[in-house]
Design a protein that fits this description.
mainly alpha, 15 helices, globular
């Protein structure tokens, strides 16, 4: 672990280390300063930052556009939830089953796409199709109560139980914070490793990478399986935080879009972009919702319209995303991607 941390910080500038340390410190003490409502908002931000980092492995590092990433979170959620409700298996043990299931699903999608040359927009459509297959399938699957929904038992705990993921929002906040930091470290270690350099070569010019001797099929398979496995934890967290699962919600394409907006707004292919994008989108969306409520306005779809406006503004004004523009002004440097 010490070697990994040393490698993580090895080529960061002193200013970057200061900014990163300040951010982590602020997030650690946040629950002791803000109220329960803001803690819940921060949990959502960290959740989207985590899923954005997982999706970034596919698109940002390898250049493979996935628009059905909700399938991996959904599989993780249902596997862990079924094991917990039917057999009493703790979610952390359930995660050991959820991750291989999600990775196997990613491997199937990747094999069908990469072996038969399905690329670009057609690969994106394939990922949507699998997510829709999962939604329809789980909608009729009796073991998960089909469309009626799967509900996790909720008990009144006098104390937090991190092992069974039962407890207060503050406990869930720190679990998600730890997961987001772990995903950040993993992504940095990957992108600065041999496999990361091969991914970037594939992203920039797959034909040239293949001509240079890179086994593009193998390394794209690595990307999709790692990304799927990492995303599955988000589903496990979702299941135990909300305590209910409905196929229409869990596998809906809107979930996938929600996952990818953070990296797109913050900066695809960057390490800090998914985190910044999640903060910007969720923070502004919650501020808009609060303002509308204060004015007594009920505007269905206002949040979706807001997301669209944010995406339009960033694409036009900052096509690289907010983070690369902000990093240049702060003098912050991260792994080149």
């Amino acid at each position: 672990m010490s070697a990994a941390l040393a490698r993580l910080a090895g080529d960061l500038s002193p200013r970057t280390r200061i900014w990163l340390a300040a951010l982590v410190a602020a997030l650690v003490i946040a629950p002791w300063i803000v109220g329960d409502y803001l803690v819940t908002v921060l949990i959502l931000i960290l959740y989207l930052a985590y899923t954005g980092q997982a999706w970034n492995i596919m698109m940002g590092f390898t250049g493979q556009l996935s628009l059905g990433h909700a399938i991996y979170a959904g599989l993780g959620a249902y596997v862990a939830a079924v094991l917990f409700t039917r057999y009493g298996v703790a979610p952390w043990v359930g995660l050991l089953a959820a991750m291989p299931v999600a990775a196997a699903c990613g491997a199937i999608i990747g094999f069908l796409a990469f072996r038969f040359g399905v690329t670009g927009v057609y690969f994106a459509i394939l990922t949507i199709a699998f997510a829709e297959f999962a939604r329809i399938g789980f909608d009729h699957l009796g073991i998960v109560n089909a469309a009626a929904g799967l509900f996790l038992p909720v008990a009144q705990y006098a104390h937090n139980d991190p092992w069974r993921l039962r407890g207060s929002p503050t406990m869930f906040y720190y679990v998600m914070l730890a997961a987001t930091l772990a995903a950040f470290i993993l992504c940095r270690l990957l992108i600065t490793s041999r496999i990361g350099y091969f991914w970037l070569a594939i992203r920039e010019d797959e034909e040239a990478a293949r001509a240079a001797g890179i086994d593009t099929f193998r390394y794209k398979m690595y990307a999709v399986t790692i990304s799927a496995a990492v995303t599955s934890f988000a589903g496990v967290f979702y299941a135990f935080f909300y305590n209910n699962l409905f196929p229409e919600q869990v596998f809906n394409i809107s979930r996938s879009i929600q996952m990818i907006l953070g990296p797109i707004i913050g900066g695809v292919g960057t390490l800090f972009g998914p985190i910044l994008g999640a903060f910007v989108l969720t923070g502004l969306a919650e501020s808009l919702s609060t303002a509308l409520t204060a004015m007594g306005l009920d505007l269905p779809g206002a949040e979706q319209v807001f997301y669209g406006v944010c995406l339009l503004v960033v694409v036009v004004a900052l096509p690289e995303g907010i983070w690369p523009w902000l990093a240049r002004r702060l003098g912050v440097k991260e792994a080149e991607s």
